[in-house]
């Protein structure tokens, strides 16, 4: 299914009068509206190929209908999102769940939808059917050199796929660790992992980056070999200038101060990528902004402040991606909601009076500091986010149009009621 441009224009025309009224009221109360709008227009969020099917839990998976059955259909799905919001202009592939067969055709299809290929993701947390050695006791940390070698070769293979697609980054998330005290020696596990990552690093093209993603627990429950930002930063620093830490919002222990983490990683020039989701308890992979929108805003405030301090381009300096999937929503509707929440938090962060905040901090005026932050957070920025969409030819209200055009019903007609997306 393709969404024709005239359908978006017709829809916007019906909404435009009301939109303009709200936008003008908001714009009249803000400084530098045009600057904020341009930043919103430029900001693109990668969609992972594994988020397009219905997710599941350890206990079950309730498949949706009309899910993409192939990489081509996944690209088509991201193309639909991008047509609706013009903010989802990249797709992130997971190898081996989505191995491209014909690079040229896949690249042409993505280009046709206005999509780029974001970071490619390796997988050494599962055994594949044709795999020689098992990752049951880890991959890059493994005591057996042959297993470490297999993990390294897989990552180099992923880089090769990425090069063909025009990607320029590899994300490595390792499930390595231990579930019981004494199961492994922490130093050996770290050193084996470092040696393996060094071999992968050596295979990176000059203009590539590698992102070392950390996670506090799960699937291992006693120790994770890349368990927090300190461990990830240690690896990134030891590896070299092409290695960065990747922050996934769901990969922290409860109540971790993620805004402080991103602030310090940016200060060190070592924040490379970002995975959005939301959670109440652990790595819940819920819709971004659905549980803790204030935390999301505070994180964006740290990101904007930290990127501006280093003169970084917000849109291109970091790899922004959603990493979520759950089992009770239509995945495309869920992704539209996540992108909207990200754009809202970003817009609010752009409105923070950074000069005023710095002044209040200098005077230890704690009350004014809070007022300045909450002034931005409590501003309803939805009209400005919608205006950015209008200017790029996207829908003023993407979710509403998705439903009005019966996108899912169309996909079910094309793909069938019982389809299961590859990978999950
Ligand atoms: Mn992630």
UniProtKB/TrEMBL annotation:
Keywords: Isomerase, Manganese, Metal-binding
Record's keyword annotation contains Metal-binding: yes
SUPFAM superfamilies reported for this sequence: Xylose isomerase-like (SSF51658)
Family matches, as Gene3D superfamilies: Divalent-metal-dependent TIM barrel enzymes
Name this polypeptide is given: TIM barrel protein
InterPro entries reported in the protein's UniProt record: L-rhamnose_isomerase (IPR050337), Xyl_isomerase-like_sf (IPR036237)
Organism encoding this protein: Pontibacter silvestris
């Amino acid at each position: 299914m393709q969404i024709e441009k005239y359908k978006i224009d017709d829809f916007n025309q019906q909404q435009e009068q009301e939109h303009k009224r709200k936008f003008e009221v908001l714009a009249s109360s803000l400084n530098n509206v045009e600057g904020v709008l341009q930043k919103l227009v430029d900001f693109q969020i990668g969609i992972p190929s594994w988020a397009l099917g219905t997710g599941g839990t350890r206990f079950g998976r309730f498949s949706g209908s009309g899910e993409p059955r192939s990489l081509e259909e996944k690209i088509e799905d991201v193309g639909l999102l991008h047509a609706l919001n013009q903010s989802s202009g990249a797709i992130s592939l997971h190898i081996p769940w989505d191995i491209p067969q014909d690079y040229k055709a896949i690249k042409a299809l993505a280009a046709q939808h206005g999509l780029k290929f974001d970071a490619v993701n390796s997988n050494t947390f599962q055994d594949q059917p044709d795999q020689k050695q098992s990752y049951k006791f880890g991959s890059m940390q493994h005591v057996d050199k042959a297993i470490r070698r297999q993990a390294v070769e897989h990552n180099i293979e992923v880089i090769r796929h990425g090069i063909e697609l025009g990607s320029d980054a590899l994300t490595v998330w390792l499930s390595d660790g231990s579930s019981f005290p004494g199961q492994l020696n922490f130093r050996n596990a770290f050193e084996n992992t470092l040696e393996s990552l060094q071999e992968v690093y050596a295979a990176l093209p000059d203009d590539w980056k590698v992102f070392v993603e950390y996670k506090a627990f799960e699937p291992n429950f006693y120790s994770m070999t890349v368990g927090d930002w300190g461990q990830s930063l240690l690896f990134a620093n030891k590896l070299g200038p092409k290695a960065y830490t990747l922050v996934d919002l769901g990969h922290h222990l409860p109540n971790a101060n993620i805004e402080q983490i991103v602030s310090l990683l940016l200060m060190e020039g070592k924040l490379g990528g970002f995975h959005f989701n939301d959670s109440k308890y652990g790595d819940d992979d819920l819709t971004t902004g659905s549980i803790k929108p204030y935390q999301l805003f505070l994180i964006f405030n740290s990101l904007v402040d930290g990127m501006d301090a280093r003169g970084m381009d917000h849109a291109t300096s970091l790899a922004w991606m959603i990493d979520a999937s759950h089992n009770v929503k239509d995945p495309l509707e869920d992704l539209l909601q996540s992108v909207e929440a990200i754009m809202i938090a970003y817009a609010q962060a752009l409105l923070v009076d950074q000069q005023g905040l710095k002044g209040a901090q200098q005077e230890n005026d704690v009350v004014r500091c809070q007022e300045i932050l909450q002034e931005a957070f409590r501003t309803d920025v939805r009209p400005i986010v919608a205006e950015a969409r209008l200017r790029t030819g996207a829908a003023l209200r993407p979710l509403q149009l998705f439903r009005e055009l019966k996108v899912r019903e169309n996909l079910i007609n094309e793909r069938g009621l019982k389809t299961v997306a590859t990978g999950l």
